[in-house]
Design brief:
The protein is α+β, with helices and mostly antiparallel strands and about 140 residues long. Helices cover about 15% and strands about 25% of the residues. The longest helix has 10 residues.
Length: about 140
């Protein structure tokens, strides 16, 4: 049976997924059983130089000490953390770039390519999410 981001019976553990020969890599399903969120910053990283766009650098700075990795395209970032996000949002920026914030019902492909010296911990992103996307969050993380 094909995996689905909304049907938990199709999910597997990290150990099972890492040992599998199906698919082309690992990912994480954002669900309502935890408070893990992903901020997806599109078109913000120069894949040749590694330099971040100023707007993205400000978001990464404001996220604090949390896990950040380069997205599969090589030109974006995934910022991982904790917040209570039940209704995702896509915020289109005037320059055409976008920030997506998701906490449920999404599969996020992971690369394992850590951005800079980001730690392997998840910070509370509640304040950042509330600032970037008012109304996206139902309440602060406990």
């Amino acid at each position: 049976m094909a995996a689905s981001s909304t049907r938990s019976r199709t999910w597997s553990t990290h150990k099972e997924a890492a040992a599998s020969t199906a698919g082309v890599g690992l990912g994480f399903v954002l669900s309502d059983v935890d408070d893990i969120v992903c901020l997806d910053l599109d078109h913000c990283l120069n894949p040749l130089t590694g330099q971040l766009s100023p707007w993205a650098a400000a978001i990464v700075r404001d996220a604090g000490a949390t896990y950040v990795e380069v997205s599969p395209s090589g030109g974006g970032l995934h910022i991982w953390g904790r917040a209570d996000v039940r209704h995702g949002r896509r915020i289109r920026r005037p320059d055409g770039t976008a920030v997506e914030i998701y906490g449920t019902g999404r599969y996020i492909a992971m690369t394992g390519r850590r951005h800079g010296s980001s730690p392997s911990v998840l910070a509370d992103l509640s304040t950042l999410v509330a600032r970037i996307a008012p109304g996206c969050q139902t309440h602060a993380v406990r």
